[in-house]
Design goal:
The protein is an alpha+beta fold and 201 residues long. The chain has one domain: 3-Layer(aba) Sandwich (L-fuculose-1-phosphate Aldolase), CATH 3.40.225.10. 37% of the residues lie in helices and 17% in strands. The chain has an eight-stranded mixed β-sheet with strand order 4-3-2-1-5-8-7-6, sandwiched between helices. A hairpin with a 3-residue loop joins β7 and β8. 42% of the residues are buried.
């Protein structure tokens, strides 16, 4: 199996450069060959998403760190809960995209309005919970279980109230692609509100 760490480094930089997250936080993980690879703690605030492969922690199937830093991302519970319950998921991105964050703050479900986001269905918001908590991880799993057919077909975006978004994908490219598409969907919804009814018709 290929080692995903260099690709994770590249995707992390892309996420930050395209304003799909901010310095306040965010994390990415990949499951490959029975191992889980997790981005370093404080990837946003300390490293501004400019990370190196050796900063990525590698966990075995029992969640023990076998390589890299032992201090894990604060949102590690979310990542591990997803991998424990969904063998079809190969990557998780937690991010703070500037337009999707508006829906997260409002606790509002986002409808697909673009042709290329229709396949994802609605992006729902879990009930408000403490960030970095097991309860948050459990809520994400509950929603993903309910939307499992959607998850297996494409990918799944889940809004975290006042916090951000979690993207569950079959691999890292699929998760990143989903994140960018959903972010543009949010941007189009919000900016279209500036147009009058004639322009929106």
């Amino acid at each position: 199996m290929p080692d995903p760490r260099q690709h994770m480094v590249e995707i992390a930089a892309l996420i930050y450069s395209r304003f799909l997250s901010d310095s306040a936080g965010g994390n990415i993980s990949v499951r490959e060959g029975g191992l889980i690879y997790v981005s370093p703690r404080f990837m946003g605030s300390k490293y501004h998403y400019r990370i190196k492969p050796e900063q990525i922690s590698v966990l075995d199937a029992q969640h023990h760190v076998i390589e890299g830093p032992s201090e894990l991302s604060r949102e590690i519970r979310l990542h591990l809960a997803v991998y424990d319950h969904f063998p079809e998921v190969g990557a998780v991105i937690h991010a703070h995209p500037r337009w999707l964050m508006v829906f997260a703050v409002a606790g509002r479900t986002m409808k697909p309005v673009l042709e290329y986001t229709a396949k994802f269905g609605e992006v729902e918001c879990i009930p408000e919970t403490q960030m970095h908590s097991q309860e948050l991880a459990d809520r994400v799993v509950e929603l993903a279980m309910r939307r499992r057919e959607q998850l297996q077909r494409t990918a799944l975006g889940i809004l975290l109230p006042k916090h951000g978004v979690a993207i569950l994908g079959r691999d890292l490219d699929n998760a990143y692609d989903t994140l960018e598409r959903l972010e543009n969907n949010a941007r189009c919804i919000l900016l279209s509100r500036l147009l009058g009814p004639e322009e929106c018709a």
